[in-house]
Design goal:
The complex is a heterodimer of chains A (about 110) and B (about 110). Helices cover about 0% and strands about 45% of the residues of chain A. In chain A, a hairpin with a 6-residue loop joins strand 4 and strand 5. The termini of chain A are far apart. Chain B is mainly β. In chain B, about 0% of the residues lie in helices and about 55% in strands. In chain B, the strands form 2 sheets. In chain B, strands 2, 4, 5, 9, 10 and 11 form a 6-stranded mixed beta sheet that branches. In chain B, strands 1-3-8-7-6 form a 5-stranded antiparallel beta sheet, with no helix packed on it. In chain B, strand 6 and strand 7 form a beta hairpin. Classes of the chains: A mainly beta (about 110), B mainly beta (about 110). Chains A and B meet through strand 5 of A and strand 4 and strand 5 of B.
């Protein structure tokens, strides 16, 4: 079946512009995560959605970052007024919740020039 | 909250030899410990996981051991092959949250021919 789909796969933007990154999770997965991965680094947690519960936003690095998940399915991560330090791969993952395995998308590589 | 430390950061082994990666965690309430493999330029993928009610789990050439008393768990890869070259991440479920995974920093495994 279809896996987690992220778009765009690559995004180049100018400093100061806003960007939107999209994640289509696996159908039926109630949990959705966003992570950031800088080159050669680990997984930096950003935000976690679980069903209809309030999201865990504790990982968002600044108020320029926000995310929403509409209808318990598609999620959008928005970065306002992008900075060069925002350049990274943004990974989305979904799961059935609990201790079910996370299924990752291929990520969006964001480059801020 | 939970803290996960992973060692070593880089591991180089001769093809055919064994590799061991170790992680320690701080929250005694954590009860789920997955391992993910991320090949260069690809998404992380679950390779094995263990729950706190067992001490060891094996799947062909890979195994994971868990010592709850010492709060550490390890990934063992035997008869290493070139395709084992990747970055490996351990994680622990944060005991007091709704299945928020806390990740290790990753180990880059290099298999020398």
């Amino acid at each position: 079946g279809a896996g987690v789909s992220q778009s765009p796969s690559n995004k180049v933007t100018e400093k100061g512009k806003d960007v939107e990154l999209r994640c289509d999770p696996i159908s039926g997965h109630t949990a959705l995560y966003w992570y950031r991965q800088s080159l050669g680094q680990g997984l930096e947690f950003l935000i976690y959605f679980q069903g209809n519960s309030a999201p865990d936003k504790s990982g968002l690095p600044s108020d320029r970052f926000s995310a929403e998940r509409t209808g318990g399915s598609v999620s959008t991560l928005t970065i306002q007024r992008t900075q060069q330090e925002d350049s990274a791969v943004y990974l989305c993952a979904s799961s059935l919740g609990g201790d079910s395995p996370l299924h990752f998308g291929n990520g969006t590589r964001l480059t801020v020039t | 909250g939970e803290n996960v430390e992973q060692h070593p950061s880089t591991l180089s082994v001769q093809e055919g030899d064994s590799a061991v990666i170790k992680c320690t965690y701080s929250d005694s309430a954590s009860n789920y410990f997955p391992w993910y493999k991320q090949e260069l330029g690809k998404r992380p993928q679950l390779i094995i996981d263990i729950r706190s009610n067992v001490g060891e789990k094996k799947d062909q050439r890979i195994a994971v051991t868990l010592n709850k008393t010492a709060k550490h768990f390890s990934l063992h890869i035997t008869e290493t092959q070139p395709e084992d070259s990747a970055v490996y991440f351990c994680a622990a479920h944060e005991g007091d949250s709704n299945y928020q995974l806390i990740w290790g920093a990753g180990t880059k495994l290099i298999i020398k021919p």
